[in-house]
Amino acid sequence: MMEGDSTDTFTGNRGLRLEEPLIFEQDAPGRSGVDLPEPPPVQSRLGGLDREGAIGLPGLSEPQVVRHYTRLSQKNYAIDAGFYPLGSCTMKHNPRLNEKMARLPGFSDLHPLQPEATVQGALRLIDTLAHWIKTLTGMPAVAMSPAAGAHGELCGLMTARAALEARGDARKRVLVPDSAHGTNPATAAICGYEVEAIPLTSRGRVDLSALKAALNDDVAAFMLTNPNTCGLFEDEILEQAHAVHDAGGFFYCDGANFNAIVGRVRPGDLGIDCMHLNLHKTFSTPHGGGGPGSGPVVLSEALVDYAPLPWVVHGDEGFRLVEHEGDAAGAAPYGRMKAFHGQMGMFVRALAYMMSHGSDGLRQASSDAVLNANYLLASLSKELSLAYDGPCMHEVLFDDGFLKGTDVTTLDFAKAMIDEGFHPMTMYFPLVVHGALLMEPTETESRESLDQFVETILHLAKRARAGDAQAFHDAPVHTPRRRLDETAAARRPILRWRPDPVQGEAAE
Fold it and tell me: What is the C-alpha separation between 192 and 422, in angstroms, rounded?
């Protein structure tokens, strides 16, 4: 039961909002939805590592299992349920057409160790997707195997390092803007480089003079996000690229926000040497969630020869994979990023998205994403405080200045949004903005859903300034669980269920 609620019920249920215990708490020894025969006795080959006790799986009937997971699914907030201001970073509409294509037996039944002759269609699909990625970015080559954005970052820097080592140029430093995603400096460190931060100007963009001052013959690369994490286009990017190249370094671009410029700007025309693409952000594949994701890396002419294996090539005899350095025809790949060839399911979905939209549709999608974000900017800046003046790209960034003197924090504001039926926006990121509220509506939200969100945010802002701080401190009150003690959860996390000791002894 929810404590301190005047509407407590005997069951803990609230109409259709049902209270659901953990599956282990529903255990009834001997209960099962299916009967399995006892296995025949065999000689153990586990070398003395045989399990001595019960495996500990809960005993439930089939209806119990179905109800349990159905009830859990009803507690989820999903993109199919409502608007996510987190945007394409985390939650973006995945068209059902893409899912249908990915489930075709010819794709879903593939095995990575099949003979090449039996997977010619799959290799052709990878090659076709690679072609359109290169076309959209204006780059001559792409590595398809990286499994996610951060993996792609590592791929890009390792490729740059291989190129530097090939020319006998052992550089030690990588420059990263203050606004960069945390994976950028982490990737550089993992790659063996020292990381130096480059500050932003009051416009929320890289300080060009500070960048130029930091460049010398020891800088291996500059890692830029464009549009950047403040939701702004780096309008001095050509000058940045020239400065980096004049110093002999490589220009890496974090392609997390490529979805804002598809069809309008080609990164290859901006002087970029390598850039990863998050297929879930730009080309509407499901979010990897730690895997299986996909983060292809496009490469400039200067880095083509150092791309990691494998490559898909084709000739008169069809498609084949170049998997060994000896077959690389004069190139010098630094090795492999992954055991196999990439994430086939993501490739199918991304290509289906591209083909169903066409070039004009992809351009419109990026335009709509920018339009929707600027609609939020124009509508909310009446009450909320913008972090940086001027129009934004695909996401709009506010700070907590509008909450000054209210005793309401960004976190409090986000908790109140949950009560209103919205998933909170990205909070406290980027770190260069105090109390940041980063909102990305994506290209798929309707005017009606945006208007409802806007009116809700304006209502909450006025309520905070009216002195109703306690309501924000109490929020959320309409959820299955109230606000957690986040400090205790971080310091003393409970990561697994354990049976009650008394019950455990009785069971033994």
Answer: 42
Q: Which CATH code, of 3.40.50.300, 3.90.1150.10, 3.10.150.10, 1.20.1250.20, is assigned to 395-491? A: 3.90.1150.10
Which among 150, 146, 159 is positioned nearest to 343, based on CA atoms? 146
Rounded-to-10 torsion of CA 231, 236, 237, 241: -150
Domain spans in the chain, listed from the N-terminal domain onward = 97-353, 395-491
CATH topology of domain 97-353: Aspartate Aminotransferase; domain 2 (3.40.640)
**395-491 matches 97-353 in CATH topology:** no
Angstrom distances, CA of residue 383 to CA of 85, 366, 398, 399: 18, 27, 11, 12
pLDDT 10s digits, 238-287 = 999 999 999 999 999 999 999 999 999 999 999 999 999 999 999 999 88
Under a CB-based contact definition with an 8 Å cutoff, are residues 197 and 176 in contact? yes
Q: Which helix (H) or strand (E) holds 318?
A: strand 318-322
Q: Enumerate residues 6+ apart whose C-beta is below 8 A from 505.
A: none
Report yes or no: 441 and 396 within 8 Å, Cβ to Cβ.
Answer: no
- In the three-class reduction of DSSP (H, G, I as helix; E, B as strand; rest coil), residue 419 is classed as helix
CB-count exposure of residue 167 (10 Å: 0-12, 13-18, 19+): exposed
Using pLDDT thresholds of 50, 70 and 90, give the confidence band for residue 448: very high
Query: SS3 of 238, please?
Result: helix
- Sign of the torsion formed by the C-alpha atoms of 255, 171, 207 and 403: positive
Cα 102 to Cα 98: distance, rounded to the nearest angstrom: 6
For 421, the token pair is 């039926």
Q: What is the pLDDT of residues 453-493, one digit of tens each?
A: 999 999 999 999 999 999 999 999 988 888 888 889 999 99
* pTM metric for this prediction: 0.90
Q: What is the residue type of 454?
A: V
What distance in Å separates the CA atoms of residue 450 and residue 189, rounded to the nearest whole number? Answer: 40
The pair of structure tokens assigned to 433 is: 């903005």
- Judge whether residue 291 has pLDDT over 90: no
User: Amino acid letter at 15?
Assistant: G
Length of the chain: 508
| Cis peptide, bond prior to residue 140, ω within 30 of zero | no
Q: Where are the beta strands (DSSP E) in 105-249?
A: 141-143, 173-177, 194-198, 219-225
